[in-house]
Amino acid sequence: MVYKRFGPYCLAGSGDFPGRARPVEGPFAPLILLQNRDPLTSRCLYPVDSLEQVGQESIAALLPTGDGGGSSLARFIRANGAGVLNTGFPRCWSYLDRFQAPPPEKFRVTLVGLGDVGGTVLTGLKLLGTELSEIRIYDPNQALCQRYALELNQVLSLEDKPLPQVAVCPQGELFDCDLFLFTASRGVPPLGAGGDVRMAQYEANRQMLKTYARMARNAGFSGLFCQISDPVDHLCRSVFLESNRDETGKLDFRGLAPEQIQGFGLGVMAARAAYAAGEEGLPTAPLRVYGPHGAGLVVANAPLAGYDGEISRRLTARTREMNLEVRALGFKPYIAPGLSSAAVSILRLIRGLPHYGAVPLGGAYFGCLNTMTPLGPAAVREALAPGLQQRLDTALRELQGFAHG
């Protein structure tokens, strides 16, 4: 193992060092482990606290690991932590600097799409987002933008804390922000439609997102692209792929890093699972939800101790179909998703708290509890029952096998 100093970082690896890196005798913090992996199926930047966690692109990334052995490097990582940087991404060094930069005192957010979901997300962020300085809104309906700006800037603070200002955002400035929230959607199935109503929106929303993915690339966007419209997990992957194509359509991986994109659809599934468990008199504290927002969802009544496959599958079915109950009443279900999946989950991310989101893993975006760190998102690791691990493996393989077009 070779160690070199590069700015404030200690780089460790066997090659791919920047030309300005200079040899040092041993590791120091912050330590960055260099790997060169296929960017199509691997992450760019992620934290580890054990040498065994390096290179994990499977459900193993959700599980506890051993101490990594008795080598001096393993002991150093155990004591200080480290990051893994994939030099297969041409812009990996700028990604590293972006994640290591101190967070702003107040976050600036752009929200695109003021339909039912977007309006609900905006209202939730206005009322709860004391960490935000400004919410910039964009929708093709400019009168709707003006209406929301006028009304929400007339809302009082409950605790006399400054609330974020709402401002109409020019189209040319959409990516002048810390977080970009995409809620716009096309082809939402009408009431009474059967099947997976989330997946029915995929192609129309993918085509619309191409434009915004290209804009993020061209703007050199360094913030977090928050995908909220359905199907969340598949569209996250589409944003990553489209932002990393050159003008000829060839993948060059000079766009958004996979860690710059996160999907927000799983929060409402956690809330629905708790609702369903409450109906049955089951404890809600040990509940977990994983995987995609929709078909492929996995609900567990507990991660390990007390895990019951039959109960978990029953809760999964009830949770997955709960949106159809709202539709059967003659309404589109958007209030709980807008608040639980987006507004609350995004604010928990900003506050450094565990939250449900879809994060990059093995060439897909997989929903799980995670926290955002200065070295990218980190899945919450905990022991899982063997039966639950098998369900999660299946869910991840299905996401990896999806044809994105």
Account of the 3D structure:
By secondary structure, the protein is an alpha/beta fold. Helix content is 34%, strand content 20%. The protein is built from ten helices and 17 strands. The strands form four sheets. It has a six-stranded mixed sheet, covered by helices on one side. It has a six-stranded parallel sheet with strand order 9-8-7-10-11-12. Strand 10, helix 5 and strand 11 form a beta-alpha-beta unit. Helix 5 runs parallel beside helix 6, helix 7 crosses helix 8 and helix 7 crosses helix 9. The chain is globular.
Task: Describe how the helices and strands are arranged.
Elements: E1 2-6, E2 9-13, E3 22-23, E4 31-35, E5 45-48, H1 72-80, E6 82-86, H2 92-100, E7 107-112, H3 116-128, E8 132-138, H4 142-152, E9 165-168, E10 179-182, H5 202-218, E11 224-227, H6 232-243, E12 261-263, H7 266-279, E13 288-290, E14 298-300, H8 309-328, H9 335-350, E15 355-361, E16 364-373, E17 376-379, H10 386-400
Parallel strand pairs: 2-4, 4-6, 7-8, 7-10, 8-9, 10-11, 11-12
Antiparallel strand pairs: 1-2, 1-3, 5-6, 13-14, 15-16, 16-17
